[in-house]
Fold this protein.
Amino acid sequence: MDDEYLSFDIKVDQDKLIDYFHSLVKTDINDTVVSHKEEFEEIYNYKIKGTTVKEFKKELPFSTHVRRDLISKCNENDPDISDICKFVREKIPGAEFGLIAFFFQRKGEDVELHQDFPYRKNSLLMIPLFGERKYALPKSNAVTYYKDGGEYQVLSPAIVNVMKSHGVRNVDQDRLMLHLEIPNLTIEQIKRRIL
Ligand SMILES: [Fe+2]
């Protein structure tokens, strides 16, 4: 499936990133702000009063799966992050960043089919973190799958399409990843312009 998944070759200092993760505040995903709320309201002609994931889901006319991820928001200007952003901008001309955050997903917390929009839009660079020398986090057998599409084990950096319905199953270990949202480019656009 061409419009779902793209391996992305990037070298990062795994231990440094995990140290950075430990220095940040961890928040409940449900208390984080929905970035693309206005666009969602325009597309679906549906007004939402709340701004957080929890408030948003309460107002939707259907029930959705509750996520339990812990989020640690990063600053694009932090040196650990700005190097990654610079590399991505060089590889993918015109790429802009939305939410940049560590996602900590607990063992057993499989995720039902969903689309990330309006929480996130278009493309997401996922960098799984296991450590190198200082840390040795176990690799899970988790599988990211698309509705009527492919199945992927994200054990190395990859860009995924968050607009197509997808889920995660077999989360048999805690998972730590750095997520960089690229909201201004679809995965098809990234595939066309990647250097
Ligand atoms: Fe998702």
The pocket of fe (ii) ion is lined by residues 114, 116, 162, 166 (CB under 6 Å).
